[in-house]
Design goal:
This protein has 499 residues and is an all-alpha fold. Helices cover 85% and strands 0% of the residues. The chain contains 19 helices and no strands. Helix 1 crosses helix 12 (268-286) and helix 6 runs parallel beside helix 8.
Length: 499
């Protein structure tokens, strides 16, 4: 119970900042979209997808590895400094190679073939790659140390600088270049601050001394397999965007990316859990505490499913109001792909914490096999459906691939030795969703004014869904009390709770 309470507190220390960064994204995205316009926003979306995919062999070789191994307590002398020493050297080498290759490729004229202006963009991407590498290393190191209370605010700082500097430069006439410069400035400053925090935690003399011995084979094996895993996962996020840009055009890409961004807002809590559970579950795996893993995964899976189903119902009900209000009337065409994406986004949301727990085991081959099936399905369906149905085909294909992740990761989890769905209560969650969904949709139809609906429907939905979930047994009353007791509520409120 003590371990669960500590995990919950660490979760809250990451959730608050994540909510703030999401609010920043919610507020800034329509501003960026309107300033750039559909075509330039489509180019910006493609650049972010190219960056994310390109960074996989560069960044995935260090991020999860340093987070996992820093969290493990080994008998090796100066273990923390040795882990950081190894990953710092690898990070520097890969950052130099990655930036250099991108500069050479751009000089050879490859960027020009992508589209007008992409030569400038790719030169900036080279700088983005370098600073992004050290931002990733330092932020994941903070998680490995258990410094969630530091990592969270730094995430807010990074997001605030990105949109603040970026929007200012876009408004000044720099367009996509301005947004890229915003990313570079934000990543560089975040890396410097996080690095300063880490240096206060370690011995510099040990960091720069020669190690006696290290499990290099274990490090390299995990890093190599993790690159493959991250490549497969990231392909789910970006292959569809790139294929829409190639097969349909820049404006359609802007509309499609807008739909994706809205659908991904339901991942707020699962993303926080995923970031927390990698190093937290590594400790349980290293101590062979399989029963605790199953209990932890089972409860997290059920809670996550309840939350994201509620969010998806609300967003789906209000989609035809939200999309044009949020992005502007020209983006109303993004409503259909958003509705098509939501079912799969729910499945992927529930799967994300399971991916982190499976990674914590260090046994990545089973996980790679599972994610590989979803990635292949994603590419195949997008290739088949985009030429026929455009961005709606991409949304359908991606939704199916997203949804398959839940089924595949449950299979992987069982192969690794724990069952995340033993206490899922799927029938009760489904009945709760059906009954609450009818009330939420009915409430929305009774209200004509868009802004009034946006204020009333979420409140009615939350209250109805919560009451039905407790009444139907999707969540127990004592579980609700337990969660409320752990929240940072005023003493007078917690004093009223049973027990």
């Amino acid at each position: 119970m003590k371990g669960t309470t500590q995990l919950f507190r660490r979760f809250l220390s990451l959730l608050g900042p994540k909510l703030i960064t999401t609010i920043l994204a919610v507020v800034s995205t329509p501003v960026i979209v309107r300033l750039l316009g559909p075509a330039s926003y489509g180019d910006y979306a493609v650049l972010l997808s190219v960056y994310s995919l390109y960074m996989i062999p560069i960044s995935a070789a260090i991020t999860e590895g340093v987070q996992k191994f820093l969290a493990e307590e080994r008998d090796t002398e100066a273990w923390i400094e040795r882990v950081l020493q190894f990953y710092l050297g690898v990070a520097l080498l890969l950052a130099l190679v990655g930036s250099g290759v991108l500069l050479v490729v751009t000089d050879l004229g490859v960027a020009e073939r992508v589209g007008e202006g992409f030569t400038r963009y790719f030169y900036l991407l080279a700088g983005f790659v370098f600073v992004g590498q050290f931002r990733a290393l330092s932020m994941h190191s903070l998680l490995g140390f258990g410094f969630e209370q530091v990592k969270g605010p730094l995430g807010v700082l990074k997001k605030g600088l990105t949109v603040g500097v970026g929007i200012g430069l876009v408004a000044g006439g720099l367009g996509v270049v301005g947004m890229l410069l915003g990313h570079i400035v934000a990543n560089a400053l975040t890396a410097i601050i996080a690095g300063a925090v880490i240096l206060r935690r370690i011995s510099l003399r040990e960091l720069f001394s020669l190690p006696d011995s290290l499990p290099y084979r274990e490090f390299l094996s995990f890093n190599g397999l993790n690159i493959v895993l991250v490549l497969l996962v990231m392909s789910l996020f970006h292959v569809d965007v790139i294929m829409v840009r190639t097969l349909v055009g820049d404006e359609a890409t802007g509309y499609y990316k807008a739909a994706l961004s809205l659908a991904e807002y339901i991942w707020i809590v699962p993303i926080v859990l995923q970031g927390l559970l990698l190093h937290s579950s590594s400790t349980l795996w290293s101590e062979n505490r399989y029963d605790e893993l199953s209990a932890l995964a089972g409860r997290i899976t059920r809670y996550t499913a309840l939350l994201v189903v509620l969010m998806a119902i609300g967003l789906g009900t209000l989609a035809d109001r939200v999309v044009p209000l949020y992005y502007g009337e020209p983006f109303a065409v993004a409503t259909t792909p958003l509705l098509l994406l939501l079912p799969g986004a729910v499945g992927f949301a529930v799967a994300r914490p399971l991916q982190a727990i499976c990674q914590g085991s260090g046994q990545l081959r089973v996980l790679i096999a599972a994610v590989g099936v979803a990635a292949a399905l994603n590419v195949g369906l997008n290739a088949a459906l985009i030429p026929l149905f455009g961005m709606n085909g991409a949304a359908t294909a991606t939704s199916v691939a997203y949804g398959s992740m839940f089924v595949l990761l449950v299979w992987a989890s069982r192969r690794l030795g724990y069952d995340p769905v033993a206490d899922l209560r799927a029938a009760r969650i489904g009945l709760t969703a059906a009954l609450a969904g009818g009330i939420i949709v009915g409430t929305s139809r009774l209200i004509d004014a868009d802004f009034l609906a946006l204020g009333v429907v979420p409140v009615v939905g939350l209250g109805t869904f919560s009451l039905l979930a407790i009444t139907l047994g999707a969540v127990d009353t004592d579980e609700v009390v337990e969660i409320l007791a752990k929240l940072p509520l005023p003493t007078r409120v917690t004093a009223l709770l049973p027990g």
